Amino acid sequence: MTLPYAFRMKTQRRSTPAGGRPLRADAERTVTAILEAAERTLSRDPAATMEQIAEAAGVARTTVHRRFATREALIDALAVWATQRFAAAVDAAHPDTAPPLVALYQTTANVLGVKVGWGFAMSQASSANPEVARVHGDVRETCERLFRRAREAGVLRADVDIPWTRRVYYALIHEAAQNRDEKDTDALATLVVDTLLRGAGTPHPDRL
Amino acid sequence: MTLPYAFRMKTQRRSTPAGGRPLRADAERTVTAILEAAERTLSRDPAATMEQIAEAAGVARTTVHRRFATREALIDALAVWATQRFAAAVDAAHPDTAPPLVALYQTTANVLGVKVGWGFAMSQASSANPEVARVHGDVRETCERLFRRAREAGVLRADVDIPWTRRVYYALIHEAAQNRDEKDTDALATLVVDTLLRGAGTPHPDRL
DNA sequence: ACAACTTGCAACATCAGTGATGCAAGTCCG
DNA sequence: CGGACTTGCATCACTGATGTTGCAAGTTGT
């Protein structure tokens, strides 16, 4: 006896790459190629087709489906993959222990390193995946902690609103990651931090 | 003789609201309701269905299709509608003639007034519609002209990169429009201009 | 070498979304 | 009032995307 197609569709799930035991070398390469192609393709068009992703990966569409049961599973895997790198990048900057300005610069540079090249995956912060959401939440708190430390140290003005400043900071990183024309990560990080701290105005404008 | 359905699908187009002569009062109301519902619905989920939009407008899906031949036509009409308001808002601030700081503040406030409530429509800057694209291009140039004027007047530092500053400015407006918790447009404009000009740092940080 | 695994291909099922249409009932406006 | 317009409803046509399956051919690891 066979179950109705529709029922099987909603029920059957293959294991996502995270959930199985080691893949054979060729399969491993394929998975990586698919994830990278998905990033490239989806960052250009978030509504891109499985077909387009498969093509970009140089692979048949059926193969994509063999590795990622559903489109959702693929995007989820992408988000998890990028999120781990993201958290690692933040952590490596010692945002809770280094002097505020140093931590701010280092964090910015590290995050830009990940964000350039994994922009789509990183935009999945509000993922359905609780792990992804948790990590993004943690990073957000780390960021605000750093900003509070910076404020106490006199790096940030005493009257700044921390959540607003964090949003501005995220937006600057986002813009810098889009912008990158010829510039390297360090130059971009300098630009972001400089803009965040000093803004674009003169210290004491004398006219309107 | 009847043409094949598929052919008609790609060919037949009803006039968009902009392209016809006056509608009867009830039809006019329906069109407005649909546009407003589209904005509300699409700003929450850009992939929302015609069905969802119709429901939000309190109208049958067929009615939406009667007024806007295709989904594309609806989004286009939305973009045109918002773009006109956008251009008018910028223009009303006299960005080319008022003193730079005044113009900057006034433009910000006016644009926020439109952007809050028409966020989705305004995000369609890279619309297929040449009119929309042209207006957004014009506004962009007006903005950069204003910034150059501000730089010459000593409001912006002499070393700022105008395109980067404009991008930052846009991003700040975007964040402020999302952010609006209880704040009115003037408070938001103050926040944006203040952040753009002064940043979040202290004038002379004495530590790292 | 050989068993296990992986891939491409072709074919298929299903579904959701889009768009069209005819008709009956309601609304507008001269 | 009465003709013209508009809407909801039910129904249909079509398309594109997603996901499945079986099989033959190629690859991997031991």
UniProtKB/TrEMBL annotation, chains A, B:
Domain HTH tetR-type as annotated: residue spans: 28-86
Organism superkingdom: Bacteria
DNA-binding region range list: 49-68
InterPro entries, A to Z: Homeodomain-like_sf, HTH-type_TetR-like_transc_reg, HTH_TetR, Tet_transcr_reg_TetR-rel_C_sf, TetR_SbtR-like_C
Record bears the keyword Metal-binding: no
Gene3D superfamilies: Tetracycline Repressor, domain 2 (1.10.357.10)
Membrane-spanning parts: none
Key words, A-Z: DNA-binding, Transcription, Transcription regulation
Family annotation (PANTHER family): HTH-TYPE TRANSCRIPTIONAL REGULATOR BETI (PTHR30055:SF234), HTH-TYPE TRANSCRIPTIONAL REGULATOR RUTR (PTHR30055)
Name of this chain's protein: TetR/AcrR family transcriptional regulator
Organism: Actinoallomurus vinaceus
